[in-house]
Specification:
This protein is of the alpha/beta class and 536 residues long. It contains 24 helices and 14 strands. It has helices at 4-9, 21-27, 40-52, 57-70, 72-81, 83-90, 94-100, 102-105, 122-127, 157-170, 189-192, 207-224, 237-246, 256-276, 292-307, 312-316, 352-359, 376-385, 405-411, 445-455, 462-473, 478-482, 493-510, 522-528; strands at 112-115, 136-140, 177-183, 229-232, 252-255, 285-288, 319-323, 326-327, 363-366, 390-393, 417-420, 427-429, 432-434, 437-438. The strands form 3 sheets. The protein has a 7-stranded mixed beta sheet with strand order 8-7-6-9-10-11-14, covered by helices on one side. A 5-stranded parallel beta sheet has the order 1-3-2-4-5, with helices on both faces. The protein is globular and about 75 Å long.
């Protein structure tokens, strides 16, 4: 029998002041709640007012996470009532600050923490989770959290936040989701010296021991949750690529930093090409940063170019990369295997602004995590070479953005096509208001999750990300573009995600990757699977 105490302590069943008279009588709740019986909408008004009492975003974040632990329905109803307001609080940019302070602000542990010390008990630990039909796990080892580096188990804020967005932005039922941190230690001395750091107090494990741990985890989670899809998150670049490919055929999985970022960038560029009148195959891209994110974007764009008629050689000739040691050229001996396809037979160049004049790109994409790297000279060079220069400072959080929206718009005299990884406020330039677009992966991974959940997809393919990017681009209107947006307004994210999920699901069925029969009405089928924040 469910007691009054258990009802009020269970975030999935707790309705607070919304319990009806009949429910209060049935479960012995009389006297444990104020006499008034409120609607969920009234509770949202109170939650909104309470959030607004806090000035600092980090305090708003703490309040919202505590609300999630008390009343899950109210949390999602509140966040879904105003995505533009709440997504930057639940996720980027605030989640970066939350991760850095995670050991100090943690109230109630959420998700699973699997330590390398428990290497031979992983299956047992997974079986401790109270929901037995988990469909999505966002998994991190905390080594490359946003642009902040090695945060160890404090990176758990990322899986928690990402899975909140699965539900908020695409209606994936929250009971199907599980945040997981693989605790293999940290090389962050500040955390190792912090008495409130909640993870293993040892330097990070690597090599074969690390590989064996991940191997055991993958096979254990597949056994415990047979329909699981893993979203790999914030692993070190080389390990991220290795894990992504190694387990691609073992279970349904994808890497959001690589594939999700690639899809959202491709979607934005397709929209930019459509409205600027310059074909994708006529663009020339220069990346600042040559890691997993940069090569992931370039590889997906190259695939899209090939699908519309370009040869592989022609496609790859459009991409140039620049890292801490300068332009990626065939002369360099320090390149990793995944970077080699982008090395060019050019003179070495260690100055990014000069490299722009050397290569003459139409677009620069920042995935360097170096705040301010797109300085005035860099942006001015782009404006000198292009009528509508594409400026994408994609690094986040905000402090790591290569430039701000105001800088890009001002330095190009309002000519640039702009999108960033973190949100920026509207910019007024010479009487015109520009609304900066945010190339946030939230446009991709929740929709991907909804499509995978609905179809019980067995695998995630590059073509699914291409389809997602195309579906995203088609939802950008001329009116959006004239305001400066190359992504749909964030407040429309739920409908945007549904439309993308329908397209992805269609591709899943066409590729014979679905685990369920194709329905006669795909849209109705997708919508029937979506979570609605309401009391039952």
């Amino acid at each position: 029998m469910t007691t009054a105490f258990h009802l009020l302590q269970d975030p999935r069943k707790n309705k607070g002041t919304a319990f009806t008279k009949e429910e209060r009588d049935k479960h012995g709740l009389n006297g444990l709640l104020p006499n008034v019986i409120e609607t969920l909408d009234t509770q949202v008004l109170r939650a909104t007012a309470q959030v607004d009492e806090f000035e600092k975003p980090i305090n708003k974040y703490i309040y919202l996470m505590q609300l999630l632990e008390i009343n899950e329905t109210l949390f999602f109803k509140t966040v879904m009532s105003n995505p533009a307001k709440y997504l930057p609080l639940v996720y980027t940019p605030t989640v970066g600050e939350a991760c850095e302070a995670f050991g100090h602000i943690m109230r109630s542990p959420r998700g699973l923490y699997i330590s390398i010390k428990d290497k031979h008990r992983i299956k047992e630990i997974l079986q401790n989770w109270y929901d037995k039909d988990v469909r999505f796990a966002v998994v991190t080892d905390g080594e490359r959290i946003l642009g902040l580096g090695d945060l160890g188990v404090c990176g758990m804020g990322i899986p928690i936040g990402k899975l909140c967005l699965y539900t908020t932005c695409a209606g994936v039922p929250p009971e199907l989701t599980l945040p997981i941190t693989l605790d293999v230690g940290t090389n962050n001395k500040k955390f190792l010296d912090d008495p409130l750091y909640p993870g293993l107090r040892q330097r990070r494990v690597g090599g074969q021991e690390y590989d064996d741990f991940v191997f055991e985890f993958v096979h254990a989670i597949k056994e415990v949750f047979p329909k699981i899809c893993i979203q790999w998150e914030d692993f070190r670049g080389d390990e991220a690529i290795e894990i992504m490919h190694k387990y691609d055929d073992v279970l349904c999985s994808f890497n959001d930093d690589i594939e999700g970022t690639a899809a959202v960038a491709t979607g934005g560029l397709l929209a930019a090409c459509h409205y600027s009148g310059k074909a994708l195959t006529d663009q020339k891209f220069l990346f600042l940063g040559a890691g997993a994110a940069a090569t992931g974007i370039a590889n997906l764009l190259a695939l899209k170019m090939q699908l519309i008629g370009a040869s592989k050689e022609e496609a790859f000739s459009r991409f140039f990369m620049f890292d801490i040691n300068g332009l990626l050229t065939t002369n360099r001996k320090d390149l990793q295997d995944f970077q080699l396809p982008f090395a060019k037979d050019l003179e070495d160049n260690r100055n990014f602004a000069d490299a722009i004049m050397q290569i003459k790109p139409t677009a620069i994409i920042g995935v360097s995590t170096v705040g301010g790297a797109f300085n005035e000279q860099v942006v001015s060079n782009m404006a000198q070479l292009n009528e509508r220069p594409i400026i994408f400072p994609y690094s986040n959080p905000t402090s790591h953005a290569e430039c701000s929206a105001e800088q890009a718009i001002t330095w190009t005299k309002g000519k640039c096509i702009f999108a960033s990884g973190s949100p920026f406020a509207p910019v007024n330039y010479k009487g015109k208001t520009f609304v900066p677009g945010q190339g946030n992966n939230v446009y991709i991974f929740p929709a991907m999750g909804l499509a995978i959940y609905a179809t019980e997809a067995k695998k995630v393919t590059d073509k699914m990300f291409i389809v997602a990017a195309e579906a995203l681009a088609t939802q950008v209107t001329r009116e959006h573009f004239e305001k400066g947006l190359i992504y749909p307004p964030i407040n429309t994210i739920l409908e945007v995600s549904v439309n993308i999920a329908i397209r992805i699901a269609d591709e899943i069925f066409d590729s014979n990757l679905a685990g369920v029969p194709r329905p006669s009405n795909l849209e109705q089928f997708i919508r029937s699977k979506m979570y609605q924040p309401m009391y039952k």
